Amino acid sequence: MSKHTPGPWEIGAEYMVCKLDELNVGSNHIQSKNDPESEEADAKLIAAAPDLYAALMMVLDDPESLAGRPRTAEAVNAALEKAKGEQG
User: Fold this and answer.
1) CB 9 within 8 A of CB 24
2) DSSP calls for 42-81
3) What is the Cα–Cα distance from 28 to 18, expressed in whole angstroms?
4) How far apart, in whole angstroms, are the C-alpha atoms of residue 51 and residue 2?
5) Rounded CA gap, 47 and 20, in Å?
6) Measured between alpha carbons, how far is residue 78 from residues 53, 57, 74 in Å?
7) Per DSSP, what are the bridge partners of residue 46?
8) What angle do CA 81, 40, 55 make, to 5 degrees?
9) Averaged over 81-85, what is the pLDDT?
10) What single-letter DSSP state applies at residue 14?
């Protein structure tokens, strides 16, 4: 898997999720088979993904935060594996 584009990401017009900087310009239009509210919710989730990833990495870096919480540790590891493309 290639390295993901780091945040921050922003939501622009018509729920475009964008990452803009000097070297990288990119955008993806979120299209939902549901309704416009779903498109907006999907765009917000995608825009938050880099921050969610970083937060999970912080949790993983602090073993005490997961002490005695095996289900939480399992969920954190599974989410990070999925984000990295390591989950089958």
Assistant:
1) no
2) HHHHHHHHHHHHHHHHHHHH-GGGGTT-HHHHHHHHHHHH
3) 7
4) 18
5) 12
6) 12, 12, 6
7) none
8) 35
9) 85
10) G
**pLDDT computed for residue 25 by the predictor:** 46
Fill in the DSSP letter of residue 36. H
Beta partners for residue 48, in sequence order: none
Domain residue limits, the chain: 10-83
End-to-end CA distance of the chain: 13
Closest CA to 74 of 55, 52, 59, 54: 59
**Residues 5-49: tens digit of each pLDDT:** 666 777 666 666 666 554 444 555 555 566 667 777 777 888 888
